[in-house]
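Appendix C reproduces, verbatim, an entry submitted by the partner laboratory led by Prof. M.T., so that reviewers can inspect both the input and the predicted structure.
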Amino acid sequence: MPVGTTRFERRGAAPEIPVWIPDNCTQCNYCAIVCPHAVIRPFLMTKKDIETGPEGFLARKAQGGAEVAGLQYSIQVATMDCTGCAVCVESCPDDALYMGPFEDYAEKNLPHYEFAYALPLLDDKVDKNTVKGSQFQQPLLEFHCACAGCGETPYVKLLTQLYGERLVIANASGCSSVWGGTATTHPYSVNKKSGRGPAWGRSLFEDNAEYGFGMLKAQEQRRTRLAAGARKIIDDRTASPELQKLLENWIKHFTNGDKCDLVCDKLLPLLEEESKTNSALQGLQEQNMMFRVQSQWLIGGDGWALDIGAAGLDHVLSSGQNINIMVLDTEMYSNTGGQSSKSTVQGAITKFEPVGREVNKKDIGFQAMQYRNVYVASCAMGADYNQSLKAIREAEAYTGVSIIVCYAPCIDWGIDMKHMMDIQKAAVDSGYWQLYRYDPRMTQQGKNPMMMDAKRIKTKLSKYLNDENRFKRLRKKKKYRTAWPLV
């Protein structure tokens, strides 16, 4: 199925779209990292590039030191793909964005986005492992069918910006399998320079962990056989000296994704050329897609991870294998209309829990920590962008099982989704949601593996609870079952 085809839908569904005010902008890129649909993006370009741009194209001198010296910076919006959620406007710390009428700006600003998108990527000019730098990387999840203001998609979008070219995703049924795998158009894309992008497959609630674990074991076996074949070529000296040297370097960096990519950029074209006249190399050429390191991820919601697929996931957590898990926690079955799950918190009103949930949610992070050799992180992007980025990086780098539990606000909570990121911050500030990273590697250094990334309560829990309809309804309808004040 062709990938990256959602960009051709151009639904034009938003009544209002964000408009950039360059003179107010401090170029933090927060608007881009929070955007659920990868609609608003920062671009780096040269002054010469701008000279060929459409009339009215706006840019300013790029800020950020020597790495962007001499470059220009611009924020552009894919106007026909925006859903009008306004999360970017609410998250901008500089009042550099406002929502303008669709009919006034969509047609006029679309050529500006198309021009910037067509320019050569300058993503290698910046450190992608920072909040700002990560947003200059091409998002390989874009323009999908998730709800306006979706709390799930920013995490997966960020994952594709960091590791999308070698990402392999096993996706459980649920919201993420719908916005991630729509029929006829596909939101996962490929990098413009390399032509590589995420490999994505969906399975059922009950077996997604096993599905992704099988993917991992299959690629391990295939790469092991490929390495054996490469060693035979080296030992038998049946390739050119240049190719043999590259094969030796490939084996040396067999498990290092970044270094392996650098070797493969030279190795694969040479292997393809030599295999045309050297039959001994044809076996390696037939398996050339296995040379690069793959980053295996299991992705799904709390209904999968804490409920229907819990047994399979626990098997993976105990396996000790090098596999990553991302749980998009909406604290309910969002895709089927907001039913109660094992992640629904005590007191929340959902479908099938009309008088509030009787028991508290299951703590999947605490469960994973009991194995002592699992990397565990709890994130809320709106509370700390850098903590979410750091958790994804540490999880991917960890040789073993890693799990990231991502707090993902949902429209079924009864909230205004433009405040999606603010709600995450309020959840952490009130102590409702914890930010932490549990890294078993720290014990080898004699340090505490548990790192609390939000250590103080900054506001009352009642403030958070009273802002969401799932809790307010309990207060109004079943006051005798509540224990917090309304104000």
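The first strand starts at residue 16 and ends at 20. Additional entries are available on request from the coordinating office.
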